[in-house]
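Incident review: delayed structure delivery

Summary: a single-chain prediction request sat in the queue longer than the usual turnaround. Root cause was a stuck worker, restarted by the on-call engineer. No data loss occurred. The affected request and its eventual output are reproduced below so the record is complete for anyone auditing the incident later.

Affected input:
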Amino acid sequence: MAWRNGCEELTQSKPLFITIYTVVIIGIVVSSFYVFSAIYSSDTPAAHSSAWLASSISPEDPRHIDQRLNISQSEKVHAVSTPSPGKQNVWPSSIWEVPPSNKKMPPLKDFRLTKELVQQRVKDNVVILTFGNYAFMDFILTWVKKLTDLEVSNLLVGAMDTKLLEALYWKGVPVFDMGSHMGTVDVGWGTPTFHKMGREKVFLIDSILPFGFEVLMCDTDTVWLKNPLPYLARYPGADILTSSDQVIPTVVDDNLEIWQEVSGAYNIGIFHWRPTESAKTLAKRWKDMLVADDKIWDQNGFNEILQSQIGPSVDDGSGLVFAFDGKLKLGILPASIFCSGHTYFVQAMYQQLRLEPYVVHTTFQYGGTEGKRHRLREALLFFDPPEYYNPPGGFLSFKPSIPKSLLLSGEHNVESHFTLINHQMKQIRTALAIASLLNRTLVMPPLWCRLDKLWYPHPGVLEGSMTRQPFLCPLDHVFEVNVMLKKLPEEDFGPGIDFREYSIFENPSLPSEVKKSWLDVQLCKEGTQDCDGSYNITAGGVLKFPKNSSEEMFMKVFSSFKDVKVIKLSSVQDAFTGFTNKEREERFRRRVKQYVGIWCCGSDKPIGHIYYDMYWDEKPGWKAIPPQSPEEDHPPW
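Output delivered after worker restart:
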């Protein structure tokens, strides 16, 4: 053999040549090691191009999930600490770094919650936590993305099912197994399973505090807008800093709420714990309470224990108060910048006080999980896959028409509120019909309200709050967003009508091909000049279209513009006379009648809520009054 002859020659050579041969051979071995290491350890080019995955890949593969987030490799955030000696890091070295495609996922036991595992994510002794199941995958990705955009990387996600754990792992998100063995579907607010999920939060806190780390615990329906860690560090003496459901400001700056003036419940969707003896004792007491009685809501239990002893103030200036055992130091985060769904989306308190919000929690809303998504989308705070911004069939948009008097004249009362809403609702009803006819996705208009909506009686807006009248209200104040997205049988309700938030054209994720493919349509009176549905390029590319057009006219004209991504109507008032096929018209009516909900609530009646009616204008003498008896208390359809 050649290599053997070489060795024999080497042993017969002089010492100088022995040294030279030795150095050369060592060099070859070392070089080979680096070459093979580079080949087998580097990511594939596909992994580095984008975290968005081709639609041809089977969604059953946990590496390629349906809920996808567009994270480029340049956006990776490096891990904040190295693994402990002798311990292998279960995650890649940076967030959003996709594991190599030829690598097997570590066994489930490696994702168990241990001090060593949490230590890998800690920075300045703080870890930021959220948890959920696969149904909230898109919320979790949004939560992680917003934090990493803020260059905050000491975060960790608890997975309540293995499908979520695997999906997050293959996204490069630090994840651990909570051992909950939950299902992968949305369980719905207030259900027994929902309360079971909430209890996991208590168990997590009780498990992590003994590790000696500070924990900023967040619900998955929170979105971070500013790095909160410097703010929390302003109160090193606090054992717990908690958010609240406070809707009336007690401070107008960024100091903690004045605890004596707080009437809203402490909200456990956002709270920060330090591993002090008082905090650990509270966590154990809280856990024991919930284990002993499965009917206690976790948040109610937290409030009950903390407020069993409240006061006095810790000092004159910090805003902290003694609570629980008389030793625990509690601070209530200002609701103006640690925002609830009311202080952010309804009051816009941070804007009025000229403050920078840290976080928004999608509470105080009425459309379930779908309503939470829509609110965040309206505020440009939710991350969706590219296809969301470029739906098949394109968009239909319109310019709403609202007379000044409907917004500003007269008192803000139930009558003026419903007059304003009904005027907008009728236009939206027409736009839904045209979108259905043209098979386009409707861009909902901004919605204006004169009265707030809550679960309990109120005088129109909450006294002491900063709600302005009128105000731009979330869609779920009037429309049942969860029902609009529900799949209804076509034979009974006609084809589904997709829709998007009013702000979608302002979203940076909107592709240029959509922005450039736009048709403006000007409604005109039939018989006037050029009002025949012809496209006049010399008139600035505006299509003039007759008012009160039939289904046949719509199809005749707009069939030529199927490839146009956005059709925007100058108005929809008196635009469409209705479907030719009466069965289709009836199915459409059955569908959209379910799209609207209730206003709540007046305080001077036994039944305080009033039903919105999509076809209010077809009922002579219709008035905005609550049901007069329990027998009348049902939707108008």
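Verification: The first strand starts at residue 77 and ends at 78.
Action items: add queue-age alerting; document worker restart procedure.
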